Amino acid sequence: MTVAAILKRPAKEYSFFLSLPQATRVLLITNMVYAFVLPVIEIFVGAYIMRNSNDPSKVAAYQLAVYTGIPIAFYINGFLLNYIKISRLYSFGMMLSGLSMLVMMSLVSLSSLGISLAGVLMGCSFGFFWANRDYLALNSTDDSTRNYYYGLETFFYTITYIIVPLLVGYFLAGVENNGWFLGNVNAAYRLVTIVVFLLTIISSLIVHQGKFNNPSQKRFVFFKFHSLWNKMIALAGLKGLAQGYLVTAPAILIMRLVGNEGSLGMVQGISGVLTAFLLYLLGRVTKPAHRIYIFTVGLTIFLIGTLANGVLFSAVGVIIFVLCKVLFTPLHDIAYFPFEMRTIDVVSKIENRNEFAYIFNHEFGLYLGRFIGLVLFICLAQYVSEDFALKYALIIIAIVQLASIPLAKHIVTLTNKFSGA
Hints:
With 421 residues, the chain is mostly helical. The chain has helices at residues 3-7, 10-18, 22-34, 38-53, 56-80, 86-106, 112-140, 146-178, 185-207, 227-246, 249-258, 261-269, 272-285, 291-312, 315-351, 355-383, 386-401, 404-419.
């Protein structure tokens, strides 16, 4: 299958999508709708805090609270799977994200306690969403279809990260510049939150159209794992290290060096269309053996973006960094998630354990990396300077991330060995 052939036959591509199992299609459509929610949560909540506090440390503290809520929800979710259908828990997580935004927008003042509580609630919504999403994706795909699955899913997410920031950013800038809603930007944020909540309801209804099975084994908490899984946890820690910054730094940098939320939306959308179609083609054309090359290219682009931001530290530098981020994140994910799922396939058979046990444990690897990254930012901002934290911490993290490449190669080699591939 060549790229040219794919571009010439959209109808057959749609037929290929229809050939997927019904559960896989329902999951993809659900995630497509919810993809319109994620950019608002990940970008504009941080911008809202920055606008109303002008304190980057509060943005980082909110994100740390979010990341703290995620493993808590993973743990609760593991027990609830013994009694409640997984589709209901999945839909609950999506709806909880809209509710947590309503809580944030209803705060009279952005106190540290209020921000932390709203952050933990948002983290719990992510926890219920990702815990069940990962398990459903694992059981609705196999290694031969995961490049396509994650390529198509990431295509949806990338497109919405173009459309949503542009629309929401234009709307918020219009409120401020043209006097809509009497110039009350916070009231406009509340309207955006209501739309988000409605979208979570729609996606929740769609997921109930699929037939999904809960994990068969009840136990999911273990403390000792196969050495292969321990290496995967190390890779998760490196991924988490970058995640802590990538949902915090862009909003701070753009609000400080570029302009308002309108600029935020415009910058996010510049390179997104090309990236989205590139991802679909990569997912459709590439094989499992190509994942490590995609992974390497993504990390290299991330390093280039952080260097541009650190050296220039201006509007131009921020734009280059965000463009590189738009490319890096999906390229990294389209390779990383199949690495994770393939490793779970292999290790769960070796240890004869519930697959959710590995999804649950994986979250703690991510959390450790996120925690270290965000604490590093807060400490540098408080005890050195905010400019230093925004300039150089990203470069440090990008350089450390390069260690992911040989580690990922080693994991691929071991999974092939243990699976007999």
